[in-house]
Amino acid sequence: MAVVFDRWKHALPHSGPYLVYKKYYEELNRYYWASFAAHPLTYQGMTKMGYTWQSNPDTTLNLPQHNHCFKTLRDWAKAYNELQVWTRLNVVISLASILETYIDSVCGLAIESNPGILINSSKTLDGVSLLKTKRLDHKIVENAVHDISKGTWQQRRNAFDTLFGGHPREWDTYMTDLEDLRKKRNSVGHAFGRDIKKARRYEQITPLPIDGIKQEKLLQFFDITLKIAIAIDQYLLDNHIGEYQALFSFHVFYDHNKGKKWDDTSMAREFMRYFSKNSTPLGKQFFVDLVGFYKKV
């Protein structure tokens, strides 16, 4: 069945910002499991080579002359095991960061698509018309999404509600988990994985132990961050973005090719070839209708 063009519906399942987010998410996932797998394999290899806990780490590990402070292989192993905890904590930072970057980006896209929401008047002004005159100033978009990417997740949800007139139910479902993620991310980013308040006390004269994270909790963070990203994406696509991405892509394509003597049908055919290189094929009529809409708006 041919896909029908509709400005406020979306033929493609995900937004561009989500596709970028998913690439980052998959990259982080690959890095973590590569590190996880290497840990036991390292010890297995050392055992086969006959190393003992008292072996010299400089010769065993081929370490450069540096202030590494390892007296024995057991001493190095203690640091290596602690590194696994540190790796999990830094994955927490990355999971939180790519989610927040995605939310900032997709919210900006939704505002550009439906700028009327800035004055509580959704869909009274089509963002496509601004593309053809003067694109919405980026500072306006930044200011509008500022409160959605800062503060507690309840504060972010409230700011999202105010701007977009609602939120996906998954935000409520995973609110506690998202708050756990935010607090853990802050403890790692601002206090090296320690309790932030205790770490900043001036009377604290001894190092605090790292507040680690178990792998089960980290995998939970992997799971819920992906789910909330998908939920936000669908909510904004359904209610505010629609086909704006395809229209924006055509706007750029049209600007680059406006000197060519194509009629609307030829323009639609050429844009279909261009657009479908990196996307799901949508059918000729979809692009004919898209071109017609763009020229009338």
> Quick check: average pLDDT?
89
Largest sheet: none
| Class from secondary-structure proportions | mainly alpha
Task: Give the end-to-end Cα distance, rounded to a whole number of Å.
Answer: 27 Å
* Low-pLDDT residue intervals, each spanning 5 or more residues: none
Please tag this protein with its features.
elongated, 13 helices, about 300 residues, 2 domains, mainly alpha
What would your notes on this structure say?
There is one protein chain. With 297 residues, this protein is mainly alpha-helical. It folds into 2 domains: 217 residues, no CATH class; 55 residues, no CATH class. The chain is 66% helix and 0% strand. The longest helix is centred in the first third of the chain and has 41 residues.
Provide the fold topology.
Layout: H1 16-48, H2 57-60, H3 73-113, H4 127-133, H5 138-145, H6 153-164, H7 170-173, H8 175-191, H9 196-199, H10 215-241, H11 244-257, H12 264-276, H13 284-296
Helix pairs in contact: 1-3, 1-10, 3-5, 3-8, 3-10, 4-11, 11-12, 12-13
Summarize the entry for a quick read:
Helices cover 66% and strands 0% of the residues.
